[in-house]
Amino acid sequence: MVESKLFPRRKGFYVKMKLFHHKNGGRAQEQSFFIKYYKWVLSLSLSLYLFTSYYITHNHEPPPITKTHLPNPISKLASRALIESSHDKFLHQVQEYQVLKVFVYDLPSKYNVDWTTNERCSNHLFASEVAIHRALMNSSYRTFDPLAADFFFVPVYVSCNFSTINGFPAIGHARSLIASAVAFISSHYPFWNRTNGSDHVFVASHDFASCFRTMEDVAIADGVPSFLKNSIILQTFGVNYKHPCQDVEHVVIPPYISPVSVRATLEKSPVTGRRDIFAFFRGKMEVNPKNVSGRYYSKKVRTMIWRKFNGDRGFYLQRHRFAGYQSEIARSVFCLCPLGWAPWSPRLVESVALGCVPVIIADGIRLPFPTAVNWAEISITVAEKDIGKLGEILEHVAASNLSTIQKNLWDPRNRRALLFHDQLEEGDATWQVVHALSEKLDRSYRRSRVSKQ
């Protein structure tokens, strides 16, 4: 009964479905075609999407970090904190890497501090070797980790052995003393040998600098010691022409003038105070062209100044030492800075520091820290051959642009850049040295190693 009643319905349903398929066969085939086409397009799009995502992820830099909008404020704060923490850590690492670091060798005292038992060692015009050492020891640029250092400072005081005959530094021992220091650090540390000293820094603050000789003919004949030719020398000597004593990587630095003495003088005589001396010079001036050594001191320049202007009321010329020497500079409009045995002179620093316009008479001289001190705007340069016209030249400047030169000169940044302090100050002479070294970071073993990695 059950089967007889149900069967006809199934049969009819079967027949209807068959008839429907027969009548609409074309339409069904068409639908089947579109379904297959849709599946194919969908499959292709999905494949392209997956391929593109993989390519972007593995072949391009990730997009910059942006704030993510999360519905949960706690999650949002946590995500932001994580991003900022990572960012700050990254910036700190970058800043630490960017800051130049100097490792100061701890040498036996015979190379440096033993010499300072003579107080003059720390105060005479060659004392930048002491001042730079002291400033670096207490500065933020110093590192106690030699593996983190860009440069290695070798503190050897070679100008503190004073001659009993003339009172000037006797540097005949300089080469052997520095050679001994190099032998010490190369045997106790691995850092000299890995670069052959190219990232090591020395100071040569006397007449002919890295030649470590006091007379030019001897200095030229001997040249730079072979064991220092790869190193960096901080030296007072610098000229704009080829010279054996600067055939080495070097930085021209100013001679040492005590900032304490400058400050004391300025307290009594400020730079804008009364100046009743027109042109001033006090120092060694040979009456005859040749001195006792048989050489021409100052290439005859100082002798010519004395002969030509000693009787001129506008010139205040003195040949003997005077304890109040700086007070005379503070009273002067123009301060003559002729060459001595070497082109440079402590008067360059003293004149700038005390507001007296330096008159540079030293052909081809290269002046210290030209990016910090615009020498062309604060000084007068007179060629050695034009000494006879010196009076006319200074009178012309006084009548034309003296006030402009003085305004530029009295900017305290000039004084700061040329004075060494025991504690490094931003913009001071040791700071300028560090800045100059930062332009030589291609010599840093640490930087070159990191860049290769």
TrEMBL record:
Chief location of this protein within or outside the cell: Golgi
GO cellular component: Golgi membrane
Gene Ontology biological process: glucuronoxylan biosynthetic process
Domain Exostosin GT47 per the UniProt entry, residue ranges: 100-396
UniProt KW keywords: Glycosyltransferase, Golgi apparatus, Signal-anchor, Transferase, Transmembrane
Entry keyword Transferase: yes
Pfam families noted in UniProt: Exostosin_GT47
GO molecular function: glycosyltransferase activity
Compartments it resides in: Golgi apparatus membrane
The keyword Glycosyltransferase is assigned to this record: yes
Annotated coiled-coil segments of the chain: none
Recorded topology in the membrane: Single-pass type II membrane protein
Family to which the UniProt record says this protein belongs: Belongs to the glycosyltransferase 47 family.
The protein's name in its UniProt record: Probable glucuronoxylan glucuronosyltransferase IRX7
Gene source species: Cucurbita maxima
Gene name tied to this protein: LOC111490879
